[in-house]
Design a protein that fits this description.
Elements (H helix, E strand, L loop, with lengths): L2 H29 L3 H36 L8 H28 L6 H22 L7
Helix pairs in contact: 1-2, 1-3, 1-4, 2-3, 3-4
Length: 141
């Protein structure tokens, strides 16, 4: 495996997860503000998605696919990798939900603070599982 591809993959995951976690925290805090200030308070969440999470997701996915194409080595037959792909698909779905919520909130739409916290912990759990599955020596499976 080419080490610079792995470095790009890890950088992408870091940006992606950081952007998603920060955006959900901003959304949770903006939901707790008064309705008049909620739109302004939610604007940074949308910026975080566009500046960190979106490019990070693209970089992580592109570098990951590139690594697979350069050396598949039977990854698809390994359970840890199959589980990781399922979790990544879930993270992509969470990304979409956070992006829609951030867009709606920055346009003045209402949402519950509880929704943002559930998304925050969902993203945190998905990223933790991905990291654990990717560790050398495989702690899981």
């Amino acid at each position: 495996m080419v080490s610079w591809l792995l470095a790009l993959h890890i950088l992408g995951i870091t940006l992606w997860a950081g952007g998603l976690l920060a955006a959900t925290l901003v959304l949770a805090q903006s939901a707790a503000t008064e309705s008049a200030a909620r739109t302004t308070a939610a604007q940074p969440a949308r910026k975080l998605m566009r500046l960190l999470a979106d490019p990070g997701a693209g970089l992580a996915i592109l570098a990951g696919v590139w690594m697979l194409l350069s050396d598949a080595s039977g990854y698809f037959a390994q359970r840890w990798f199959q589980t990781k792909l399922v979790v990544v698909i879930g993270l992509v779905a969470l990304h979409g939900v956070v992006a829609v919520l951030a867009k709606r909130a920055s346009a003045g739409g209402a949402f519950a603070s509880k929704q943002a916290w559930v998304l925050f912990f969902g993203v945190l759990a998905a990223v933790t599982i991905i990291v654990l599955l990717s560790l050398p020596g495989r702690l899981v499976m």
